[in-house]
Structure formats: C-alpha cells, structure tokens
Amino acid sequence: MLTTFKATAKKLPNGMQVETNSRGFKIIMDEPEDLGGTDVGLNPVEALLCAFGACQAIVASAFADANDFSFEEFYVELEGDLDPDGFMGLADVRNGFQEIRFVMHFKTNESQEKADAFTDFIEKTCPVGDCLANGVKLVKAGVVIH
Fold first, then answer.
1. pLDDT reported for residue 35
2. Which of 2, 1, 4, 36 has the alpha carbon at shortest distance from 17?
3. Residue 19: which residues within 8 A CB-CB, separation 6 or more?
4. Stretch 83-103: mean pLDDT, rounded?
5. How far apart are CA 40 and CA 100, in angstroms?
6. How far apart are CA 47 and CA 29, in angstroms?
7. How far apart are CA 18 and CA 2, in angstroms?
8. Using one digit for the tens of pLDDT, what is the confidence trace for 23-78?
9. Which of 2, 28, 60, 69 is the most buried (most CB within 10 A)?
C-alpha cells in the first residue's frame, strides 16, 4: 500500500535559514556564512547525508533479529562530493552530489562475512538509499501566489 509522507519548508528572514516541518517535528537548515547563511543548522545536502545514514541505522536496527545478526553499536560515516560552482551558476557541472561514500561500523561479535551479508541487506532495503541510487520522479504540483 502506497503511503504519502508530507513536509513543508519555509524560508525564515535571517540569512539562508529554512524551517522544515514534518509531523510536527522541526529542523532548521541554513548555509555556512561563506555561502550567505548564518550557520545555525545543517545545509540541505548535509541533511541528505544524515538522512541516508539515519535510514541505514534504522534498517540495521529494525531487521537485525530477522537476519540473525546482533550488534551493540552501529554508526555510519558518510561523505559526498559536490561542486558548489554548479548551483551558483559559476561552472557547467552537476548541481548535486557526484558521489556519496559511506562506511558502516558495527560493534559486534559476528564474523566479517556475516557483517558483509547484513550490510548488503541494509543497502538493498534502505528507502533513502533507493531514492539516491535510482532517482525519484520530481513533480511540481503547482505554484501558489498569496
């Protein structure tokens, strides 16, 4: 069954600050000062990396028992390459990430072979990873003037 998730993003008066909201949970995003922001929050591409890592962590936690895999701790290190000249119109390069790399870390007594198999499962199951790897259709559903 298809489920629709909803969110809003509202530009705030200071710098590049944006208040995002979904289900009543708010996150303030911004840009570093050298990109015109006030540096009070993650920028959207940093938030994307965090969302990807969080999704992997949730999948690991939710499906560990079903995969007969146990761990005490799990975290993901992520990094992505993006040339800001693209979205700033200074160069003819892609606006978004050109590559995202990640390393999954477990504190576990499981074997490397079992950890590798479980991380393959995490990669196949993570919805955010699926969106990044396969793209998603973006539909501008309207423009409203108030």
1. 86
2. 36
3. 9, 10, 12, 26, 27, 28
4. 91
5. 24
6. 8
7. 29
8. 999 999 999 998 889 999 999 999 999 999 999 999 999 999 999 999 999 999 99
9. 60
pLDDT in tens, 10-19: 999 999 999 9
* Residue 119 near residue 74, CB atoms below 8 Å: no
DSSP bridge pairs for 27: 20
* Residues in a beta bridge with 19: 10, 28
Give the residues across from 10 on adjacent strands.
19
Query: In this structure, which amino acid lies at residue 107?
Result: K
User: Among all chains, which residue has been given the structure tokens 């003819």?
Assistant: 92
pTM across the whole model: 0.94
Q: How many other CB atoms are found less than 10 A from the CB of residue 53?
A: 19
Residue type, 141: A
Six token digits for residue 128: 């955010």
Which residue type does 97 have? F
Q: What is the pLDDT of residue 89?
A: 86
